[in-house]
Design a protein that fits this description.
Zn(2+) binds at residues 87, 90, 127, 130. This protein is of the alpha+beta class. It has helices at 10-22, 30-40, 46-58, 102-112, 128-133, and strands at 28-29, 62-65, 74-77, 83-87, 93-96, 122-125. The strands form two sheets. Strands 1-3-2 form a three-stranded antiparallel β-sheet. Strands 5-4-6 form a three-stranded mixed β-sheet, with no helix packed on it. The longest helix has 13 residues, at 10-22.
Length: 139
Amino acid sequence: MSSTIPALPANYRTVLDVVEAAGPGTHLTAQEIWLRSRRLQPRIGFATVHRGLLRLHQLGAVMKIEVPGGASAVYEPAATPHAHFRCAGCGTIDDLAFAVPAETVKALAARLGVAIEAETITFTGRCATCASDDGLERV
């Protein structure tokens, strides 16, 4: 993915390298990305990482996931559209192979008279471990 984006400042390239090295399905906070970036660029500041994540998200190089109930957004490498599941018990976030069909999004936009540019779907519940710890049955 990184080969299709324009030239980046060195610090932003470091941020992208960190996110891509984490791999698909890894959801890192800006703080975690900053700590990993400092291993490569010891003088990189948190504000620089935050600005880099914003720019990389605008360029489509990283996905920003605002998770309901989460303390902060998480980031992952750009990928095909998919949903997320956040466990209300332990806080883990997992990728789900689910996306609203493009035809449905297009029809919804036409019906409402809006231009839908992106979708974010996050399901919240209890993961299998937390559900079994609570004695709950999975649906």
